Each structure stands twice: as structure tokens, then as C-alpha cells.
């Protein structure tokens, strides 16, 4: 029965093939529009030569860490020590490292695998003969053998020495066979050797080998400053004004000068600016936060002891808090206590008609 069904299915497929077009055949995800997934793009990404070699070396170093074994761990390590010599430099360990080489790479995995094949002879040579006398695989492979990198502190095709950048920048091309060796200065520094302070920074410390630049006070505008604090500003930012008498920038109190807030807000001055905060709900206009700083009381509130509080009747209880049942708690036909005349006793007997 199964053979019959298979024959029928095959005949149907053959019959349908002439009617199918290429557009009817589903494409694998990597071949569909968009050029594949983000992971695929990262895998096939082409890295600069020095970076690619460094990625390969780092993956190899991870393999060395992964396959580390103590001399007396037992198992395979003890067997290797006895039968094949030191496991540390054994062929078996090299194979174990190479089996997973580049599999942990996210960017440039395909390139890493290709370099592993290209440099296979050199890696084996280092493994067997040089890892004890030249333990730095990156220097041996990427700098000396492949000649795609330079040692740290050197740049360009001939690995020329980088400038010091005064400790406040990085040499362009450092560690690679690329770049022009010029300094890329850190924030706050400028100059060919990063030995000057940039605009809006001032010199806080300097000796023959070190320069420390600090940012000017926030009151200072693009003109910079001569030192720390607002008194050292050359030009003031908006919200500050230059004090002609003593020099430097003084904060402008916008709350006094401009009255920028609405009627239901009060103004708080900040350095270089201001904030508008909402008045207390009991206020109809205010000079600050709280019911004691109202210009006048809002509807439903009255001034009592210097504070705007909720309005109340003669009992002293706010109207919105009174119990309605307390108003109609008398017997039918009797007046409410609030309706009695002065001096009249509500418990006194009434004259009969």
C-alpha cells in the first residue's frame, strides 16, 4: 500500500512540474530578498587584515584555555603524559584546539576559517617549536610571519614608532600596517601631540610629560575660561551675565526679572535657568509651595491661621466632611438644634394646645 501511494505521489509531481515556474519554488532564507539574516551578514563580513589575524589568534588562545589540563588530572591527560609526552605541546591538544577554531566568532567567521587554512603551516610550526621561546602567538604570527600587524606603539607599512600624544590621545594606525601615525586627541585636548587644552577647557596641571585639562564652568560660553569656577569665564552663556565690577559670570534670576510662570505656578531660580512648579491646590496664585504661601485662597478654601484650609460651617467641620445623617437626626415635628432661639432648652416640655 505504501509503495502504491509513493508511486501516485511521484506521478502527480511529474504532472505538475511543467506548470511550475521558478517563482513557485521557495527559496532558502539566505537566498531570499534582503541578502540573508543579520547573523549571516556578520559571519561573512570582511575584516581588515590585522583585525582578522587578531581574531584568529584570540580564538586559538581561547582553545588553549579550554584544553588546559593539570598534570595529575587523570584520564586522558595522565595517558598523554605517559604515552605521548607533555600534553601541553602534544599533537592531540593541537587537534582539539583546531576542531573548534573560529566557531566562537560572530564577525568574520568565514574569513577566520580561511585564515586558519592559510596559516595552518605557520601555526603548527609555532606550536611545535616556538610556543615556549616565543609565547606571544600574535606577535609571532600576525607581526612577524604574516606581516599584517605592528607591535603596540607602532604603525604603518614599516612599523614606525607612534608619537606619545602626551598620554591624551591615540596614534592613528597603532598596531597595524595602516594609518598615518597622527594623534587622535581625547575630549578636551588638541594639538599635533595633544599637548594643549581645547576650547571650553583649561589647564589644571602640566609638567614635562603630563597635561591635565578640565572643563570650564557651565556658566562659560564658547570663549572658554582661564581657570575653574564662573569667575574665570571669558564669555557667559545664556542665563548668566558678566559682572563688570568683579569680572566673571553671575546667574540671572529670571523669576524676578521676567516672572515667566503662570498664575497657578511659582518660580524657582536655578543656575543659568529656572523652573515653574505647581501651586498647592488650596491656592489661587502663590509665592511658593504650601497652603501658607497662597496669594489668595482657591474656591472652597478660606484663610485660617495664616493658611488656606477647606471651608467649614459653624461647627468647625468642613462641609464636604459633614455626615448628612447628623442634619436630620431629630424627631419628626421637632426643630433642629440649630433652629432653636438663644437660651431655649431643647429638652424642655412643650405647652399643649
From TrEMBL:
Disulfide bonds join 185-194. This is EGF-like domain-containing protein. It comes from Anopheles coluzzii. It holds the Pfam family DUF3456. InterPro entries: DUF3456, EGF, EGF_Ca-bd_CS, Furin_repeat, Growth_fac_rcpt_cys_sf, LE_dom. Residues 158-195 form the EGF-like domain. Residues 311-353 are annotated as: Disordered. It comes from the Eukaryota. Keywords: Calcium, Disulfide bond, EGF-like domain, Signal. Gene3D superfamilies: Hormone Receptor, Insulin-like Growth Factor Receptor 1, Chain A, domain 2 (2.10.220.10), Laminin (2.10.25.10). One of its GO terms (molecular function) is calcium ion binding. Belongs to the CRELD family. One of its GO terms (biological process) is animal organ development. The lineage of its organism: Eukaryota, Metazoa, Ecdysozoa, Arthropoda, Hexapoda. Residues 1-23 form the signal peptide.
Amino acid at each position: 500500500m505504501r509503495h502504491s501511494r509513493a508511486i501516485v505521489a511521484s506521478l502527480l509531481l511529474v504532472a505538475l512540474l511543467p506548470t511550475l515556474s521558478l517563482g513557485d519554488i521557495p527559496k532558502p532564507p539566505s537566498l531570499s530578498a534582503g541578502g540573508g539574516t543579520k547573523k549571516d551578514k556578520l559571519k561573512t563580513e570582511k575584516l581588515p587584515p590585522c583585525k582578522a589575524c587578531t581574531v584568529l589568534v584570540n580564538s586559538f588562545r581561547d582553545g588553549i584555555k579550554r584544553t588546559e589540563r593539570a598534570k595529575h588530572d587523570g584520564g586522558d591527560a595522565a595517558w598523554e603524559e605517559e604515552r605521548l609526552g607533555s600534553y601541553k605541546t602534544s599533537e592531540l591538544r593541537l587537534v582539539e584546539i583546531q576542531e573548534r577554531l573560529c566557531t566562537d566568532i560572530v564577525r568574520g567567521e568565514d574569513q577566520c576559517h580561511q585564515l586558519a587554512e592559510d596559516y595552518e603551516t605557520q601555526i603548527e610550526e609555532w606550536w611545535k617549536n616556538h610556543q615556549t621561546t616565543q609565547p606571544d602567538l600574535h606577535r609571532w604570527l600576525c607581526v612577524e610571519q604574516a606581516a599584517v600587524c605592528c607591535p603596540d606603539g607602532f604603525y604603518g607599512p614599516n612599523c614606525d614608532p607612534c608619537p606619545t600624544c602626551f598620554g591624551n590621545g591615540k596614534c592613528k594606525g597603532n598596531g597595524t600596517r595602516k594609518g598615518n601615525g597622527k594623534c587622535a586627541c581625547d575630549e578636551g585636548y588638541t594639538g599635533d601631540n595633544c599637548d594643549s587644552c581645547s576650547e571650553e577647557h583649561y589647564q589644571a596641571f602640566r609638567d614635562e610629560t603630563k597635561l591635565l585639562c578640565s572643563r570650564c564652568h557651565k556658566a562659560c560660553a564658547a570663549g572658554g575660561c582661564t581657570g575653574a569656577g564662573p569667575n574665570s569665564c571669558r564669555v557667559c552663556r545664556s542665563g548668566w551675565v558678566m559682572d563688570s565690577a568683579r569680572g566673571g559670570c553671575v546667574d540671572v534670576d529670571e523669576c524676578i526679572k521676567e516672572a515667566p510662570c503662570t498664575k497657578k505656578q511659582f518660580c524657582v531660580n536655578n543656575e543659568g535657568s529656572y523652573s515653574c512648579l505647581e501651586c498647592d491646590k488650596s491656592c489661587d496664585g502663590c509665592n511658593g509651595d504650601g497652603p501658607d504661601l497662597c496669594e489668595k485662597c482657591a474656591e472652597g478654601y478660606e484663610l485660617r491661621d495664616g493658611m488656606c484650609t477647606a471651608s467649614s460651617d459653624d461647627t468647625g467641620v468642613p462641609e464636604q466632611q459633614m455626615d448628612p445623617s447628623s442634619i436630620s437626626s431629630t424627631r419628626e415635628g421637632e426643630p433642629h438644634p440649630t433652629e432653636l432661639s438663644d437660651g431655649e432648652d431643647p429638652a424642655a416640655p412643650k405647652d399643649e394646645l
